[in-house]
Amino acid sequence: MLAAAALSATVVSSPVLAQRAPAAPPAPAPPPPYALYADLVLDAPVIVDVAIRSTTRIKGAEAATVPAGITRLYVEADVQALIRGPAALPPRIGYLLDVRQDARGKLPNLRKLRVLLFARPVSGSGTQVQLIRPDAQRDWTPAADALARRITTETLAADAPPRITGVGHSFHTEGALPGEGETQIFLTTATARPVSLSVITRPAGMRRWAVSLSDVVDDSAKPPAHDTLLWYRLACFLPPALPDSESPEAAADYRFVLDSLGSCDRGDGPR
Asked: Using CA atoms, how far apart are residues 82 and 162, in angstroms rounded to an integer?
């Protein structure tokens, strides 16, 4: 009995059979970069959610122009959902895709992969699309799908902010008290729609700024929320500084606006 009790104690205390602590859940994937998806959505007349059915290597003259380490494929994919584009697409579409080989010269297995395509129609073919740029096939995730749809909705809205093309002019007005002042910065846009920035400085040195999308400067206006189309228009396309001819006060206020907007993060995508 003593021997059996000793054996039982040994078994219970064995680290092999001890209950393991539950593994920590994987870290959540970072959200897709808004600016990268805004670039894609704004340039793509067709946005479609597809599942890849098959791939075929392109050979001959068409493949001769492909850079070393890249393989050109003809992809056939089954349409899951049309996010933006013509009234309808066929159930299956085709497109060309350039894929980078790994260190051993092998290609990733794309079959059954669900992806988002940012593309344009192919003239004369209702069953094919053309990617707007080499990285315009993006892995489908719920977050990427939701972001593409949200930016599409923002883009097609009647009051969508216009594309910023530069700075028109600015002026700075001193306030009644030392350190007080206001700067107005008028931007140029692709549609000639008025867009202006206002920066107000209080005597204590506190600054606040706002953006207006009309000829009338709204005193209740605020800076745009991060990761919105208006934020993207400003953060990604405002010039890095005012012209040298502008006043030092206006230049400092403009730098304050840029710092408040933050960087235009496109993640792994080209500008």
From this structure: 25
Q: Whose structure tokens read 């159930």?
A: 91
Q: Which residues contact 67 (CB under 8 A, 6 or more apart)?
A: none
For the chain, helix, strand, coil in percent to 5 are 25, 30, 45
Dist. CA 194–CA 168, nearest whole Å: 10
Who's near 104: CB < 8 A, 6+ residues apart? none
- pLDDT tens, 182-223? 999 999 999 999 999 999 998 877 899 999 998 776 666 789
Closest-CA residue to 240 (of 169, 167, 183, 170): 167
Mean pLDDT over all residues of the chain? 87
Residue 99's CB is within 10 A of a number of other CB atoms, namely: 18
pTM of the model: 0.84
Which two tokens mark 204? 């204590």
Nearest-10 Cα torsion for 165, 194, 222, 145 = -60
Residue type, 216: V
d(CA 199, CA 175): 12
Q: How far apart (Å, rounded) are the C-alpha atoms in residues 3 and 216?
A: 93
Are 242 and 257 contacting, i.e. CB atoms less than 8 angstroms apart?
Answer: no
The bridge status of strand 195-201 relative to strand 125-131 is unpaired
